[in-house]
Amino acid sequence: MAQVDIVTRTKNRPLFMKRCLADLQKQNFRDFHWIIVNDGGDPKPVEDIVAQAKSAGLDVELLSFTESNGMEAAGNKGARAGNAPFITIHDDDDTWDPRFLSSTFEALKNENYIGAVSWSTECSERVEGEDIVETSRRRSEYCPDAIDLAGLSMRNRFPPIAFLFKRTAYEAAGGFEESLDVLGDWDFNLRMLMLGDFVVIREELARYHIREAGSQNANSVTDQNFRHVQMTANLRNKYIRKDMETGRFGLGSMMASAAMIEDAAARASYSQRFKRLRRQILKQ
């Protein structure tokens, strides 16, 4: 049995799958089982990738569905198809440093933690024909020194590509919430952190790739900002209602406090900008 199940969710993106295969081949930790979930896309290009992976000596499995089930459902199908003690989500368009798996796996030998998170790099890119062209790279905002419930209740602190977690915790948390079409990772991370702590690896070992909104290859963050705003409110409301129903202080209470802090900070920022603008006008 492999030590790590790598779940890759994909749909009609063979160019990214080709890069994903190359990325896994570069990992210096090879005790993994790669589970590809073809979520309603053309099966032929994915089957070709599977054949190439097997030829390269990778332990790979394909789950192919004729209809799309959504990202979170695809994640659950992939995770539940495996039996390794550790799970990670490697979506088709993201990449790792060759040391990601070895570093996070080593960190989780400490039984005080149920998940390991590395710092990440944000890579902007565009697709030109059969080429992926990187246009810029910077240290991501997803680089916390530590991850606590107070901070995570304000906003998500890391992307899925940066997270290795224990299967036992995944099962106890109930897996990914399949009703969410965006922010499923934030919801999952919150429920996981309620169960135990995450260790942070202070190296940029994960790469989160961003493409222009409106393009066929755009990712959910850039292409659905409006949807994220609405779903952030919905998610907060969900947990606030739970706290009100049970009469206890929980995630909802923390998320409500975080929302008020964010609002106050935004108002203070607007006020400072207005004052600076006013001073500039008066000087003219």
Give an overview in words.
With 284 residues, the chain is α/β, with parallel strands linked by helices. The chain has two domains: 4-223, Spore Coat Polysaccharide Biosynthesis Protein SpsA, Chain A (Alpha-Beta Complex), CATH 3.90.550; 224-284, no CATH class. Helices cover 44% and strands 25% of the residues. It contains ten helices and nine strands. Strand 1 (4-10), helix 1 and strand 2 form a beta-alpha-beta unit. The longest helix is centred in the last third of the chain and has 33 residues, at 251-283.
Which residues sit in consecutive blocks of at least 5 with pLDDT less than 50?
A: none
Q: Which class of secondary structure composition applies to the elements?
A: alpha/beta
SSE order: EHEHEHEEHEEHEHHEHHH
Give the CATH topology of the largest domain: Spore Coat Polysaccharide Biosynthesis Protein SpsA, Chain A
Helix content: 40-55%
> Treating each run of at least 4 consecutive H or I residues as one helix, how many helices?
10
Count the domains: 2
Query: What's the overall geometry?
Result: globular
**CATH homology-level superfamily of the largest domain:** Spore Coat Polysaccharide Biosynthesis Protein SpsA, Chain A
Instruction: Give the rounded overall mean pLDDT.
Output: 89
| Intertermini distance | 72 Å
How many strands?
Answer: 9
Question: Sheet bearing the most strands, described?
Answer: 9 strands, mixed
Quickly name the level 1 CATH class of the largest domain: Alpha Beta
Tell me the radius of gyration: 20 Å
> β content, as a range?
25-35%
Question: Which CATH architecture of the largest domain is right?
Answer: Alpha-Beta Complex
